[in-house]
Amino acid sequence: MNDGLARQRVITWHDPLETARTGRGQPGIEFLRAIVEGAIPQPPIAATLGFRLADVGEGRAVFILSCGEHLYNPIGTVHGGVAATLLDSAMGCAVHSTLPAGLVYTTLEFKVNFVRPLTRDSGEARCEGTVIYRGNRQATAEGKLYDAAGRLCAHATTTCMIFAA
Questions:
Q1: Residues 50, 22: Cα–Cα separation, whole Å
Q2: Phi, psi (5° rounding) for residue 103?
């Protein structure tokens, strides 16, 4: 089946390694706020999938996703991996917002529960990550993903490892 209407998406991004180097010298919350304010570019994954870091506070990060058909899987909904990526980003950035300069994190594991699908009709989805526990070597966080109508679409938990940059 071919509707004859080919779609195209052009993506541009900035050097992510330069961004990472900049971030290592700043407390996590300052680095993330600079991204929200546009002083530091959003990471390439944000351009690729069409989401952005929209707000950050101590132990909290909010992302916005523009749901579009470019994110669809073969059954006509936004691929679950996109939702998982958004949740991982929100939870990880929530953890990152608690770190002093010189410390970084990586996701050790996460679990996602899908409640309802996202589609291009879902509007702008909102994903919020919140730190549950922050120790010296690990942190846990939770994330919730909502459609534009405020309906829960997915929720998740993560464990992140904290270490020197």
A1: 23
A2: -110, 145
Mean pLDDT on 57-72? 96
Domain ranges, ordered by start, for the chain: 16-164
Alpha carbon distances (Å) from 134 to 53, 63, 139? 21, 21, 4
The pTM (predicted TM-score) of the whole model is 0.94
Pairing of strands 152-164, 103-114: antiparallel
Contact 142, 129 (CB under 8 A): yes
How many other C-beta atoms are found inside a 10 Å radius of the C-beta of residue 116?
Answer: 13
Separation CA 31–CA 58 (nearest Å) = 12
Distance CA 88, CA 79 (A): 15
Angle between helices 28-37 and 80-96 (to 10 degrees): 130
Homologous superfamily of domain range 16-164: Hotdog Thioesterase (3.10.129.10)
